[in-house]
Specification:
- The protein is 43% helix and 16% strand.
- The C terminus is likely disordered.
- The strands form three sheets. It has a six-stranded mixed sheet with strand order 3-2-1-4-6-5, with helices on both faces. It has a five-stranded antiparallel sheet with strand order 7-10-13-12-11. The protein has a two-stranded antiparallel ribbon with strand order 8-9.
- By secondary structure, the chain is an alpha/beta fold.
- The chain is built from twelve helices and 13 strands.
- The protein folds into two domains: 230 residues, HUPs (Rossmann fold, 3-Layer(aba) Sandwich), CATH 3.40.50.620; 102 residues, Uridine Diphospho-n-acetylenolpyruvylglucosamine Reductase, domain 3 (2-Layer Sandwich), CATH 3.30.465.
Length: 370
């Protein structure tokens, strides 16, 4: 008889003795990941040797009957596999309305908040999610369409360190853990082959075909068209994410070395030294124009964005270009690159040019957007 296909997943960052918890929605990807890990953990040879559990988040988004059926399916599967299951119920639509988030954003925040709780309580060292190569390709396209920089194009990271925070009322000390994505190199077609070979069913989320969601439009409309130009577009986009991650890692290392030499607090005062505001809600960073002038364009742009990031802001491409113009390194008809000129940027960030410096500051941190 032909051997059942195994599911390729990364064992990187999974160590014997770890407590790993698989996020299981009931869909094909997460069911396959749980099954593959269970098989690997109970194998006679080369066992993972981990403490395996699962987590299911009931988001309260879909019809109650469908969501409850998903939960029952996951419960039955975990009983069958003898895997402990953590269940979390949430009202995502209410959170989305209260925080002015999209449903997708609110659902993600709810999930990851509960993941941090599991890590803080000691139930898990790592939470494993079933993001696939197909998910990675979709995410890169979503980021690209929204105008992301290279850090955005890095999309779904295979490993994310999570710092859980313990409250004063909590009996649990803060613990660090990880979110692992061991299926990022695996295609959905491989997952379905794996499940079908085991006669294992899965649940299909009715919202997966709803093209009011951006990801679904990309999945069902845009990617099929792109595959007519490049049949390997999914792998190409996943490769781009890996390149972007590596580029960002290199830049982070370079910036951590350079920024202490380039960024100055507050503003200069007569007689030397610098005045740093102590009023709550005020902060500022300055950069000498002569120092900026010695940098190449790529590094100059990143230094400006890193300066804004230290104040809690994320600069868009357009606002970064306006800052460059204010400093005299770009030409824009709407920006005067001269001493005394100033800019109002998105989210309450402001910039001023003095004879020697470009100063970036926030007058009201409480109004800024992260």
């Amino acid at each position: 008889m032909p051997q059942s296909p195994t599911l390729p997943f990364s064992r990187d960052n999974i160590r014997p003795g770890d407590r790993i918890c698989v996020a299981v929605s009931g869909g094909a990807d997460s069911v396959a990941l749980l099954l593959a890990l269970h098989e690997a953990n109970t194998a006679a040879r080369d066992s993972l040797g981990v403490g395996l559990s699962a987590v299911h988040v009931h988001h309260g988004i879909r019809e109650a009957a469908e969501s409850e059926a998903d939960l029952s399916f996951v419960q039955d599967l975990c009983i069958q596999l003898d895997v402990p299951l953590h269940i979390h119920r949430a009202d995502v639509p209410a959170r989305a309305a209260q925080n002015r988030e999209t449903i997708e954003e609110a659902a993600r925040e709810v999930r990851y908040a509960f993941f941090r709780t599991l890590i803080a309580s000691g139930h898990a060292d790592s939470i494993l999610t079933a993001h696939t190569l197909d998910d990675q390709a979709e995410t890169v396209l979503m980021k690209l369409l929204r105008g992301a920089w290279t850090e955005g194009l890095s999309a779904i990271h295979p490993v994310v360190t999570v710092e859980s925070v313990s409250s004063p009322q909590s009996q649990n000390p803060a613990r660090s853990g990880r979110i692992l994505r061991p299926l990022l190199g695996t295609r959905r077609s491989e997952i379905e082959d794996f499940l079908q070979a085991r006669h294992q069913s899965w649940r299909t989320d009715s919202t997966n075909t709803d093209t009011t969601y951006t990801r679904n439009r990309i999945r069902h409309e845009l990617l099929p068209q792109l595959r007519s130009f490049n049949p390997s577009i999914d792998q190409t986009l996943a490769n781009l994410a890996q390149l972007a991650r590596e580029e960002e890692s290199r830049w982070r290392s370079e910036l951590s070395r350079l920024l202490p030499q380039l960024l100055l607090p507050g503003k200069p005062v007569r007689g030397g030294g610098r005045a740093v505001a102590t009023t709550p809600g005020t902060s500022a960073i300055a950069i000498e124009l002569d120092r900026l002038r010695t940098l190449d364009p790529a590094l100059r742009r990143r230094v400006l964005r890193a300066a804004a990031r230290q104040l809690g802001f994320r600069l868009s491409f357009d606002d970064t270009t306006r800052l460059l113009a204010l400093a005299g390194f770009a030409s824009l008809p709407t920006v005067a690159g001269r001493t005394g000129a100033s800019l109002h940027l998105a989210g309450g960030l402001r910039a001023q040019r003095s004879p020697r410096e470009l100063r970036i500051f926030s007058e009201s941190v409480s109004e800024q957007r992260p």
